[in-house]
Amino acid sequence: MIGILRWAAVCAALGIGLAEAAAQGTIEGTVTDRATGDPVTGATVVVKGTLRGAACDAMGRYRIAGLDAGTYDLEVTMLTYAPCLIPDVEVRSGQTARADAALEEQREEIDQVVVTAVRRRDSEAAVNFDVRHAMMVVSGVSSQTIARTQDRDAGEVVRRIPGISLIDDKFVIARGLSQRYNNVWINGAAVPSSEADTRAFSFDLIPAGQIEHIMVLKSPAPEVPADFSGGFIRIGTKDMPAQEAVSIQYALGVNTETHFRRFLFNRGSGTDWLGFDNGKRGVSGGIEAPLDNGDAQHVTRMTREGFNNDWRVRSRRPIPDQRLAVAFGKAWSLRDGKKITLNGAVNYSYSSRTYAGMDNCRYGVYNKKEDKPEYLYKYTDDQYRTTVKAGAMLNVAFIGTRSRYYLRNLLNQVGQDRYTAREGWQNISSLYVQRKAEYLYTSRTTYNGQVAGVHEFAGSRLDWNAGYSYANKHVPDRRIVNLQENDLYGDAHYGEMGIDQNEIRRDFTRLREHIASAGINYELRMREGRKVAPTLRTGAYGEFRTRDYRARAFFYRFNPSNLPADFVYGDVVDEILYPGNYGADKLYIYDDSNNRDCYEGENLLAAAYAAINFPLGPLTLYAGVRFEHSGMDLKSYTRSKEWTSKTTRYDYTDLFPSVNLTWKLSEAHQLRAAYGRSTNRPEFREVSASTFYDFDLFSIVMGNPDLKAAYVQNADVRYEWYPSPSESISLAVFYKHFRHLIETTFRDAGGSYTYTFENADAARVYGVELDVRKNLGFMGLPAFSLSLNASWIHSRVRFGDGSLEHDRPMQGQSPYLVNCGLFYQPERAGLTVGLLYNRIGKRIVGIGRADLSGGGTVDNDIPDMYEMPRDALDVVVTKKLGRWELRLSARDVLAQSVRFCQFPRYTDDEGREHERIEVTKRFRPGCTFSLGASVSF
According to the model, what pLDDT value does residue 152 have? Predict the structure, then answer.
């Protein structure tokens, strides 16, 4: 019934839209250059106060149909021209009104230097302009699109771009390539990795309200780092305020699987609501303080007082999700047209999620004799998460006649408290019925600061930037409790759950990463105004990165002779972890830390490039070469209890050529072709010997010091059509060939896995991308617009002789991606209704093991694990009421289960091959409803 009502509401909204979309009247006209009389191609004519408008064609003509009878003001804009207002255009039902405009160029001549206004990049038309005039293959999304989709963070935004999908709702997969093959810059500066175990930037850290645009470069270019293969993602935050105003947004949300139900939690610190722990979860003396296991007095004191000993799990009804954002902007005009602008934002969100009844399994070789799965682990998890995000942005700009200077600051804090209750069994050497619990709190901080400048000269341009970035990830006091059923038949405690030595543990990890970077770019425009006018570009970039990773591990041990006989079968909170039991001769903490799990690293990257942009009539050639030297020093520790160390050096010096060719077929059509060489270097964590236990994988993760850098050959061809400044249609084909690509693998020790990293021999990836952003006026539906991007991708990884791996698709690669948005914006109603659809094809999220021995068969294989396709449908509604704006959204209204599956195969006695399905993980994310309002003043 609920599903029917949801669809009825959607259909009703769209039905109303179809009725209102009936054409009433039309405005048409021509936009010309006042000085020359030439048509101004691409000028935008918009009905003031609405999003309705049109773009001028090659003859400067425009047409806006479907207007209700009434009087309208029109705004006419075009780059390098002064805006123009056409007031009081009267539209009558069934008639066409004429409104022409003559634009004046907006520029000043100062010592033969032409200075134009700073172009805003927050609209669809502006991003389209950047994509269209870029010298390489680029895709992008603007804050105008973000406002329509009501996306909450950069992760939700970036998946609107063709070929982009997400893993864990925060890590980007670009063109089928996992997060380690993508690079991220914010405001032109590098950002640290937010994860301890892999090279990855967590896109959920950045609120959508701070973003002006996101651009994804898909072909290599001389001016960008060579260490990317899937996508080079540039995030730009808001510099120039759209208006001098203060806006406040507030929203409430509920999730159908979480709210109005029981929610389990362990009491945290007094600052959890701000996204970080205030020290309550810390260890006495700090994460690096030693604990002498042989000092009984010290052990007793640490057991009793050195940790947070509140283990009690409580229950509550979660409050609705909260989101608050405050944005402000101000501009001060100075003499001679100079300007100072200030743009700031503060944001906060609090959300809860429950994943109850989550299946979490691991399988062995399929039992073909009985035709049934062979479980190694079979658990059911109940997981409860509370996530807090807080952030602030403050950007200042000075806009001069020749120069512009920027000071940018971006700070974000994320804290997540998670409690997992697990029940089930494992069956490796024998069957063990188990009950487990994990208490996990994680906090992450990112800061990006930058000073930048742009200087315009006669025939040339210089820009520079210097930045500092910081990221940390703290896991203070991850606690794991393992209970196991007594299976000794006839024992007095048969069938009861009990603990054993070392089965209650506490882990502490701390990751800190700093990046200092500086870059300079110079552009020289030669023979300006002539038929052949090449542009030379050159620049340099330097980056120094440091990382420090610390880990501590503690277990609880006990002396049974000094404790009650049934001590191990008591209640964990009230009877085992009871203060009266603490002592070096009873229940005590044991420091099992291994210094080899810690490491430090430094990486210096030095780069320089030279390129030429050479126009040849309708053809434009952009070619160049980039030099990069990367020197990484990894300091690892060689003893478990002593701080003796060794430093390993990893040096890479390479040249990376690239060629981008654009053929302008007509004013609205162009064809691109691109080739470039890129790389993917190992990260600190991937070459360290550090180990970490992953509760979700039931496994240890460790590095591989023998990893080599991967090298990639990239080729792209893309056709682009721009029907108007805010519309685009493109079709792209791409191909990538990898040598020594880095993939995750595992080592099997009788059912216990250790995950690590390995160089495959080679791989190839190829695919097709379609992107459509089009108003549906040509179908008689001018109030409707369509946003569609779809990708088909194929990959194959080939492993060398001697590898335990089998040839397979790349991890994280989906064979297809579909993102679709249908928007309805009726004239003068201040209303936007949107339907957003997303689906990804099944992709490998866990690798298997093939029987590669002589005479091996599929009967002995452990198949790869796939995340299965699911349909995600969102409904968003926005209504403007003067200074107020109301927002309503329903996210994931279909609420389909998330499933991870394996597909084992076996041959029967007659030699026929069969395939079965095994569900390794399954949970229900639920549907999230949100209601919000914003006001500007």
Answer: 66
Question: What is the per-residue pLDDT for 120?
Answer: 57
Mean pLDDT of 468-489: 93
b/e map 71-87, b = 16+ CB within 10 Å = ebebbbbbbebeebebe
Percent of the chain clearing pLDDT 90 (strictly above)? 50
Measured CA to CA in angstroms, residue 563 lies from 203, 471, 493, 558, 693 at distances of 50, 45, 16, 8, 30
Q: What residues pair up with 228 in beta bridges, in sequence order?
A: none
Kindly tell me if the per-residue pLDDT of 8 is higher than 60: no
Pairing of strands 61-67, 25-33: antiparallel
When mean pLDDT is compared across 110-114, 227-231, 648-652, the lowest value belongs to 110-114
Share of the chain above pLDDT 70, in %: 88
Phi, psi of 301 (to 5 degrees): -65, -45
Average pLDDT value for residue range 7-36: 58
* Whole-number Cα distances in Å, 275 to 141, 152, 271: 29, 17, 7
3-state secondary structure of 14: helix
pLDDT at 197 over 60: no
| CB 820 within 8 Å of CB 851 | no
657, HSE (Cβ side, Cα atoms, 13 Å)? 3
Structure tokens at 406: 């920027």
Please enumerate in sequence order all residues whose Cβ is within 8 A of that of 726, keeping only pairs 6 or more positions apart, or say none.
44, 53, 55, 123, 124, 125, 128, 773, 775
Expressed in angstroms, the distance from the first to the final Cα of the chain is 42
- Cα-atom radius of gyration of the chain, to the nearest Å? 30
**pLDDT for the residue 310:** 95
Is there a contact between 204 and 166 (Cβ–Cβ < 8 Å)?
A: no
Beta strands in 842-897 (DSSP E): 843-846, 865-867, 872-881, 884-891
pLDDT at position 337 over 80: no
∠ Cα 388 394 395 (to 5°): 140
Side-chain half-sphere CA neighbours of 12 within 13 A: 7
Q: Element (H or E) spanning 796, and its range? A: strand 784-798
| 53-55: strand order across its sheet | 53-55, 44-47, 70-77, 84-91
- Ordered DSSP codes for 51-90: S-EEE--TTSEEEEEEEPSEEEEEEEE-TTB--EEEEEEE
8 A C-beta contact, residue 661 and residue 233: no
Distance, in Å, from the CA atom of 840 to the CA atom of 872, rounded to the nearest integer, reads 10
**Beta-carbon-side half-sphere exposure of residue 512 (alpha carbons within 13 Å):** 4
**SS3 category, 919:** strand
**Confidence at residue 17, expressed as pLDDT on a 0 to 100 scale:** 38
pLDDT band at 175 (very low <50, low <70, confident <90, very high): confident
Task: Decide: helix, strand or coil at residue 868.
Answer: coil
Q: Which two tokens stand for residue 617?
A: 């009539």
What tens digit of pLDDT does each residue of 518-543 get?
999 999 988 776 778 899 999 999 99
> Which tokens belong to 516?
């200092």
Listed as own residue / partner, the contacts of 559-564 with beta carbons closer than 8 Å and 24 or more positions apart are 559/585, 559/586, 562/586, 563/587
Tokens 């946003």 identify what position?
A: 787
173, 184, 276, 291: which is closest to 227 by C-alpha?
A: 184
State the pTM of this model. 0.83
For residues 865 and 903, give the distance between their C-alpha atoms in angstroms, rounded to a whole number.
8
